[in-house]
Write a structure and sequence with these properties.
The protein has 277 residues and is of the alpha/beta class. The protein has nine helices and seven strands. It has helices at 7-22, 27-44, 61-68, 80-93, 129-138, 156-167, 183-190, 211-221, 223-251; strands at residues 51-55, 72-77, 97-101, 114-120, 140-151, 194-208, 259-272. It binds S-adenosylmethionine.
């Protein structure tokens, strides 16, 4: 389950990952997937007045969704430019949220600080999976809720990450983020830190004018793909572009013209151990 690298090896990986997420502009993707955060808040059944943390919040999707539910919302991420964008979004909506720089593997809050802890396609990307899970549980009140959205391995984004890895192999010894997309892995990862865990598969649909437009958008804005094209160079980039276009066409509901691409993810709601029976 866990990565085979040493902790200092994983720290180097994390530094490179931080640069990767800071490249492009993830906010352009976040605006597309905002509904995932709204649906997760509903699944967790947030209550107005709860203290809610959004871990690896990017430009604040789940924190903003929680604030719209009347919660006291806080988000952490390690890319300052995304946090700055999130603050502007919240201000535009007249919402009061706190967005702070922080690492999903060392959340800068004391134990039991939040009634609910959310992460939408966030903690799954931390290189030390066990540590990321410990931190999600640690800052959650006993009996509080942990809500996750994680891409499934065989869904569109899971397959997209595999295509990218085939062209630009990830660092050896680091566990794949898409492991977080199965219930059995999450049960093992969280172990006795949780009392209950309920998962259901959901679909988010990406909509673009063409398969090529999807790939262009992601190679402009989505850090992992921006970096993959940089690393692949000109010839490798052309091959990567072609394979990604083929993948979009394989998943899209239509065979020509505009594409609607269903992307499956796992929505998980867990209850932190130790609440009153
Ligand atoms: C796919 S984006 C999702 C962002 C946001 N949750 C959303 O739904 O729009 C992944 C985010 O995780 C952040 N991230 C990845 N690893 C992190 C870590 N170890 N600590 C803090 N943030 C991290 C990245 O900076 C990026 O904003």
């Amino acid at each position: 389950m866990t990565s085979t690298r040493t902790v200092s090896g994983l720290a180097q990986v994390k530094e490179r990952q931080q640069q990767m997420w800071a490249s492009g502009d993830f906010h352009a993707v976040a605006t597309l997937i905002q509904p995932v955060a709204d649906v997760l808040c509903d699944a967790v059944d947030l209550q107005a007045g709860w203290r809610v943390l959004d871990v690896a919040c990017g430009s604040g999707n789940a924190a903003i969704a929680a604030a719209r539910c009347g919660c006291d919302a806080v988000g952490i991420d390690y890319v300052p430019a995304l946090l700055a964008r999130g603050r502007r979004r919240a201000e535009a909506e007249g919402l009061s949220i706190e967005l702070l720089e922080g690492d999903a593997e060392a959340i800068p809050f004391p134990d039991r600080s939040f009634d609910a802890v959310l992460s939408v396609f966030g903690s799954m990307f931390a290189p030390n999976h066990r540590q990321a899970a410990i931190e999600l549980a640690r800052v959650c009140e006993p009996g509080g809720r942990i809500g996750l959205a994680t891409w499934t391995p065989d869904g569109f984004i899971g397959e997209m990450l595999k295509v990218v890895a085939a062209h630009v192999p990830p660092p050896p010894g680091v566990a794949s983020p898409i492991l977080w997309g199965t219930e059995s892995y999450l049960r093992e990862l969280f172990g006795d830190q949780i009392d209950t865990l309920a998962c259901r598969e959901r679909t988010f649909t990406f909509r673009f004018r063409s398969a090529e437009a999807y790939v262009d958008y992601f190679r402009t804005y989505y850090g992992p793909i921006v970096k993959a094209f940089e690393t692949a160079g000109t010839a490798g980039g052309a091959a990567l572009f072609g394979d990604l276009v083929d993948l979009v066409r394989r998943f899209a509901r239509t065979t020509s013209g505009p594409v609607s691409i269903p992307a499956t993810y796992l929505e998980t709601v867990a209850v932190r151990t130790g609440g009153r029976a």
